[in-house]
Amino acid sequence: MIGMVDYGMGNLRSVEKALEKAGGRVKRLSDARGLSGIDRLVVPGQGAFRDFVAHLESSGLREGILAWLNADRPFLGICLGQQALFETSFENGEHRGLAYFRGTVDRLDATGLKIPQIGWNPVRFARPDCPLFAGIADGTHFYFDHSFCAHPEETDIIAGTTEYGEIFASVVWRHNCFAVQFHPEKSQRAGIQMLTNFVSLPS
Q1: C-alpha torsion angle, residues 105, 199, 16, 53 (rounded to 10)
Q2: Does an H or E element contain 18, and which?
Q3: What CATH number does the domain containing 166 carry?
Q4: Is 183 a catalytic residue?
Q5: Whole-Å CA distances, 52 to 24, 69, 145, 157
Q6: Concatenated DSSP letters for 60-124?
Q7: Edge-to-edge strand order for the sheet containing 2-5?
Q8: Do 101 and 155 form a contact (C-beta atoms < 8 A)?
Q9: Tally of domains within the chain
Q10: In the list 2, 73, 95, 141, which could disulfide-bond 24, CB 3.0-4.6 Å?
């Protein structure tokens, strides 16, 4: 059973459908009580970082997610769900993240290019042994829609990179914590393969 955080922002149905296509059963949860009875956790996200982390705080999910991560249980963060893992975001001010990873979330340094980045871009494997990459070729294109990206202080967590003006961490990984800046649910066959790899992880 996959718990998917529902924070009332964005179209989460597409993530839910993609996870089901990848072989998962999905339970939506909006507060920390929903963390019981699941064996893996997905935190997708679209919208403003400030509002996203404010919901995690008010719902009790902030501490619940951190406890889940610290217990090394399977976790997948998507887009804002990746950014929230870091210490601070500078999107429309300065806002505190979960601080599971050290680093900041900053506006893409992409002079001369359109911001947000919307569309397909290749992901280069920095750590080809990452379980999310099974059955996926290095350089495969995934679908992005973002104006900000994470800058990890711990470079060993960077599993995949993408270039859009700058080279940024599009996949991060430590133990059973995986997070991606792109949208696997919108990335067709490769995205479903990535989600299938996550669903297939030992719980």
Answers
A1: -30
A2: helix 13-21
A3: 3.40.50.880
A4: yes
A5: 24, 18, 16, 23
A6: THHHHHHHHHHTT--EEEETHHHHTTSSEE-TTS-EE---SS-EEEEE---TTS-SSEEEEEE-E
A7: 26-29, 2-5, 40-43, 75-78, 177-180, 166-174, 158-164, 124-125
A8: no
A9: 1
A10: 2
The residue ranking higher by pLDDT, 181 or 13, is 181
When pLDDT is cut at 50, 70 and 90, the band that residue 10 belongs to is: low
SS3 3: strand
Q: Cα separation of 127 and 196, whole Å?
A: 19
Does the predicted TM-score (pTM) go above 0.85?
yes
- Structure confidence by residue, pLDDT tens digits, 163-191: 999 999 999 999 999 999 999 999 999 99
For this structure, is 57 an active site residue?
no
Full domain range(s) for residue 104: 2-199
Is 130 one of the annotated active-site residues of the chain? no
Among 55, 95, 146, 183, the active-site one is 183
Structure token digits, residue 14: 């597409």
Catalytic residue among 79, 130, 149, 177: 79
Nearest to 183 by CA among 168, 167, 199, 195: 195
DSSP codes joined into one string, 109-175? --TTS-SSEEEEEE-EESSTT-GGGTT--TT-EEEEEESEEEEES-GGGEEEEEEESEEEEEEEEET
Q: Does residue 60 have a pLDDT over 70?
A: yes
d(CA 187, CA 166): 22
Neighbours of 9 (CB within 10 A): 15
